[in-house]
Amino acid sequence: MSFSVLSRRSALALLGSAPLLCRAGQAATPQTLRIGIMSGEDEDVWRVAAENAAKAGLTLKIIPFTDYNAPNEALFEHELDANAFQHGPFLKAQNDAKNFHIIPVGDTYFAPIGLYSRRWKKLADLPQNATIGVPNDPSNEGRALLLLQTLGLLKISKEAGLTPTALDITENPRNITIKELDAGVVGRALPDLDGAIINTDWAKKAGVDVEKERIGQESLEHNPYVCFIAVNEADQKAPWVQTLVTAFHQPNVRQSLIDVYHGAIVPAWS
Description:
This protein is α/β, with parallel strands linked by helices. The protein has helices spanning 8-13, 41-55, 70-76, 88-98, 138-150, 183-186, 200-205, 239-248, 251-260; strands at residues 31-38, 58-65, 82-87, 102-107, 109-110, 114-116, 131-135, 155-156, 169-171, 177-181, 195-198, 214-217, 227-232, 266-267. A five-stranded mixed beta sheet has the order 2-1-3-13-4, sandwiched between helices. Strands 10-7-11-6-12 form a five-stranded mixed beta sheet. Strand 1 (31-38), helix 2 (41-55) and strand 2 form a beta-alpha-beta unit. Helix 2 (41-55) packs across helix 8.
C-alpha cells in the first residue's frame, strides 16, 4: 500500500483553519475533529470510523504522522483534538518526560509485539551469543526485553517495571547481545540479526512475514500494551469524546482492522 510520508510539520500543514469545535450549549452544528494517527494501514481503518462518525454529525479530519513522538506533541498543543496510535506505557513515558496531560478514552486494538527471525525456524534454535535487535525508545525497548523474559531467554530486574533497559538484565544464560535500533529500522535489519523484536506495524512495513517469520509473541491476557484513543485531560468530558469512541467501536471498524492487518492485530473492545 502506498501512502504519503509525513513529518509533524507537513502533517500539520494539512490542517488549515479547521472549524472551531462546538461546545456544550452551542447550536447542534456538525463538528470537525482533527485525529492524529500513524500513516499506513490505520488510515484505511479510520476512514471507516470517519464514515460512522459522519452519521452522528461528527466530521473527522484524519492526520497521518510517521514520527511516534509528534502526535502527542500536536495533541498537547491543541493542534489535534485526539490521537490514536499508542499504548499505556508509551503515553506514561511521554506524560512524565514532557509534562503532557493526555489520557486514554477508548481502546482500539492490540498489536502483539513479536520476535522474528530469518535464520532460525523456532525459538529453541536460537544459538548461544545470538544478536537480537530491539526498538530503542524507552517503552518499546522495555516491552521487547519483557517479551524476551517471558520467552525464557533473559531475566530482568523486577525494580525496572515496564521500562527496563539492557542494564536491567540480571541473567543472560545464552549471552545474547541486545542491539538497540530505531523502531522503524529494526525490521529492515532483520536479515543481519539472529532475531529482532518488531512492532507489528513496522514489521509489515519492512516486508517481514508476520506469520511465517515469527518465533515468539506476546499474549493479550493482562497485557498493558493495548492501544487507545487519547485526548487532552481537559477534554475528557466533552460531548464529542463518546461520539468519537462509539464511531470506532463498531462492527465495520472491527472487520476493517481484521482485513487491513490480515489478522495480525486484535480488536480490543468487547
